Structure formats: C-alpha cells, structure tokens
Amino acid sequence: MKKITYFHLNSCPYCKNANKAIEELRAENPEYNNIEIDMIEENEHPEIIEKYDYHAVPCMWIGDQKIYEAHLFEKYDECKEQVRKVFEAAK
After folding, report:
1. C-alpha distances in angstroms, 77 versus 9, 40, 67, 80?
2. What is the mean pLDDT of residues 28-45?
3. Is the pLDDT of residue 49 over 90?
4. Cα 12 from Cα 50, distance rounded (Å)
5. Burial readout 30-64 (b: 16 or more C-beta within 10 A, e: otherwise)
6. Separation between Cα atoms, residue 21 and residue 81, nearest integer Å
7. By the 8 A CB rule, do 68 and 59 touch?
8. Strands laid side by side in the 59-62 sheet
9. Which CATH number does the domain 4-90 belong to among 3.30.565.10, 3.40.50.300, 2.130.10.10, 3.40.30.10?
10. So what's the pLDDT on residue 50?
C-alpha cells in the first residue's frame, strides 16, 4: 500500500470534513486502516509545502501525484467520495 500525503489547516472547515470522511471511511472499510496518512499542517511545515503544487486544502497526494484538492463550496458527500478515491488509489 502507498502512503497518502495530506495537506491541511487545523482551522479549515473543508479539512474538518475530510478528517470526518477519513474516520467514516475507515470505519466502513477496515482495510483503509492499513494505509498510512502523513498529515502535514501547512502553517507548521512551510518548507514541505513549497515542494508541492496546489492551491487549496484539503489536498491529498500519493507520491508526486495529486489525487484530491478541495474547492470552494464543496459539499461533504463530494469530499467523502474524493477521499474514498484517494484510499482506493493507495491500495
């Protein structure tokens, strides 16, 4: 399984939705618990984020491929589906 790199902000409501989706998806699909997620808070690690090309959080990568980047007004169901796709790509 591949590691997910997850860029987020602690105060971001879209990131809170992504965190909720991760928890729900792991409860629904126990195999997702075996997938490592490297959670990187933007404000704490500017030296890491400058190496990645994205504009919004939450943003999830596998290796050097961006799999999911949130957008304004994104609904929870859309977020959850995108996070599911990230987990599936990591399998």
Report:
1. 20, 23, 17, 5
2. 96
3. no
4. 19
5. eebeebebeebbbeeeeeebeeeeeeebbbbbbee
6. 8
7. yes
8. 37-41, 4-8, 59-62, 65-69
9. 3.40.30.10
10. 87
Q: What pTM does this model have? A: 0.94
Query: Encoding tokens for residue 81?
Result: 């589906």
Examine residue 58 and say whether the peptide bond preceding it is cis (omega within 30 degrees of 0).
yes
Rounding to the nearest 10 degrees, give the CA dihedral for residues 50, 40, 16, 71.
20
For the segment 69-89, the average pLDDT, to the nearest whole number, is 98
Mean pLDDT, the chain, whole residue set? 97
